[in-house]
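Input record (one chain):
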Amino acid sequence: MDDWPAAQSGDTATFPRLLLQHARQRPNGVAWREKKLGVWQPTTWAQALDWVRCLACGLAALGLQRGEHVAIVGENRPRLYAVMLAAQSLGAIPAALYQDAVAAELAYPLKLATMRFAVVEDQEQVDKLLSVRETLPLLEHILFHDPRGLRRTTAQGLRSLDEVEELGRQHLALHPDRFEQAVAQGRPQDVAALFFTSGTTGFPKGVVHTHASLIDRARAGAGFDRLTAREEVLAYLPAAWIGQNIFSYAQHLVCGYTVNCPESPSTVAIDLGEIGPTYYFAPPRVFEALLTDVQIRMDDAAGFKRWLYRASIALAERVQGERDAGGHAALRDRLLMLLANALMLAPLRNRLGLSRVRVAYTAGEAIGPELFRFYRGIGINLKQLYGSTETAVFVCMQPDGGARSDSVGLPAPGVELRVSNSGEIVLRSAGLLREYYLNPEATAEVLDADGWYHTGDAGWIEPDGQLRIIDRAKDVSRLADGTLFAPKLIENKLKFYPVIKEAVAYGAERAHVVALLNIDFAAVGNWAEKRALPYSGYADLAARPEVLTLLADCVARVNADLATDPRTAGLQVHRFAVLHKELDPDDEELTRTRKVRRRFVAQKFADLVDALYDPGLRQQRLQVQVRFDDGRTSSVQADLPLIDAAIHPALRQAA
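The corresponding structure, as predicted from the sequence alone:
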């Protein structure tokens, strides 16, 4: 088997044509694997084509038209990927939506794109749509993959994908050439997918991408990292997020590698170890969670093993840091690395399920430098990339020998990049969105007449050509004394500590920085249990004096680190509060991709933020509304202590 499939030329390729190509050239190659009842079930490219053909003809029999939008709601499932391909084969446009969204959140894009068809995974998603169907008069068909638990099967337009496939087989018998004819009508400039932004500042916007834009960026990324059909990918992030879509759909069809779908979100860690992916992608929060789990286990280990772990990590980070800087480690360190790798680092990579990873990427938001150094140090080729939904992900990428924690890489192939006079990153590439769906005003705000896309991110280009991002331009400001304030810089340093799950820093136009913190319930719970500290739940644990002291120590360490650089010494956190509830997407404090909605949080907790700036207050009473998984709401209140943090003098003077 060749390393690369015989790719079609860029001016003729669409996703269904790429599927046809793989099915003809390597019919027995594995396209998808799905874990069912503990067993990995493969689907070959030939089987995938038959599946897509039947689904496409079934959808055509139900009346799906070229140019219509189809909602896709569920976990990563080969059958749902097949539905996406089936819709695209007919010239329709799949729109993947977040499976953990509440019913009202699903209703918004269905209304916006006047969708008649929704394809969902299971009973949970069916119930959501049926609960809001009165507000969706155009929704005619709800098609489900998994029938388990379904009782309301008599609802109008509700049917299983099994029925759709049977309709497709009957349709094929009458129109045997219909599928190939429909695929042949597709053009690269046709709309391929509708993605929705995370909605950090309001309603999500629909991002329109063509086959050409998605395939161009998929090919650029594949060529940059020399991806082949032999890669193994684990698809475990929401398919509605363009990052997952690019890695498990667009690049999958460009390269022809195998995409593996876990049995459920709860089995991802086990499935990761069983598959051993060679190409891995995760946002920083996933790498943070993996590291937290490692640190919890090490805290429970015997004394010698804890010492070996810490010594090995310190050695590995030092050696890898010298390599990334273009130097060479001392002979003694290189010899010690052989021992550390055999005794600790290789078993650790295996325990994480990352022992076979050749290329690993993190994106979605900035990763903390400490977290980045940890994974690079233990031998994982972790790199940062820069992109967004509007740019089809691949804007900047780090070469294997040029990965740095303070930059996001060089412009990807085919990208023109510059920094405007205001410090905003602007770019041009063939991977840009066509438009925001039914929103010409928003489109005009980001795409100028010369085709430059305005990212809204602030940064600069380093002397070696790598791009450095400070933060979102709208979030970068100054303290009252003029010190540049980029909250992400502080938040990432705080979240490196496993006991801190989320941090939100404030300081714009203020005298100093304050922060709101969430504890990591698992990490802090493990810490408390080892010290025989009783607690009744999240709020009780977060309020314990011992836990507040623990977090104060973490904040003090972050402040000490900030004090080592004159540019950041003024950004030390002066006071903080530990929230009595987790920030949650259902409470609109986070997006569905788990990004903090900073302005919403500032408004919701305005009294608490103001109290942190009042030196005379030692605690603040807080009452907020929360939404439970079943849709019920309740009000929770607590008296939150306002903690003073240790402040350190600047250790170095500005040059």
